Amino acid sequence: MENLDEINYIKRILEGETNLFxxxxxxxxxxxxxxxxxxxxxxxxAEELTxxxxxxxxxxxxxxxxxxxxxxxxxxxxxxxxxxxxxKRKIIFPVIDDNLLENVSDETIDRVFGDDEDENRLQxxxxxxxxxxxxxxxxxxxxxxxxxxxxxxxxxxxxTTDNVKVKLYRVRKKLYVLMQK
Amino acid sequence: xxxxxxxxIIKALESQVNPMLSAGFNQLLMxxxxxxxEKKRKRMYILTLCLLSTVSxxxxxxxxxxxxxxxxxGYTFQIPTFHNLIESLPRYGFGFYIAFLILVLIGLDAxxxxxxxxxxxxxxNPSR
Lengths: 181, 128
Prior knowledge:
heterodimer, A: 181 residues, mainly alpha, Arc Repressor Mutant, subunit A, 2 domains, B: 128 residues, elongated
């Protein structure tokens, strides 16, 4: 229903009612900014990229075909904009040996991440999150904070749902390994 | 994989400092978007004007070229049918014909302007 409503808005914006774009700004500017700020920690740069995202979305509005939800389309633009910005920076992320990840059992992961009372462990987890690469940060942000489904995330980062599932599974293990360091 | 099971990750993500957008961000961005649209509209207007001017100038130049090169030479621009038409019409017939054409064109112009005005007012107040 929301998608139909948004398609109607897009149609009217393309017909010349530019002011209606403020509806999308009100609806998505905060969530888009939250995603970008996780990828680009600088407040000013994140805000600038949020602005770029909406400008690009407005310019490309006529290319939105409605084959996915408008929010997925918008988040895809935000993700690509942020990724392009990080490419210029050349940040080095820690690489974890695959064997190390294999040795972590699912039970341990479920037990560690199922408990949110241990403050010390939460602190370690926050630090571990900061050490993840851009794609991994995006995945956990969208999945855990953005309340996006696996299918939506797959559409957003242009990968298969199975691929997203595997990656999320590996990110959880990687977080655990990084917490131990 | 159940999202609710990973309570620690959700809590860690929530507790990370998440800077807010500066005040008036949306209004500022809307202002920039509207300015960009206006700029684009003006650019299109100037472009159309330039195109029309170029075409008009081209046609005038072509006319001058034809007048200059063909009229003095033996070919001459004779329009026999035009002459015949004028001769065959009653004395002021041709004048009435042109006046009628102008009236039709003015009528059409007024009609389309009204149509455009109606469309615009409907857009600005869709509840009507």
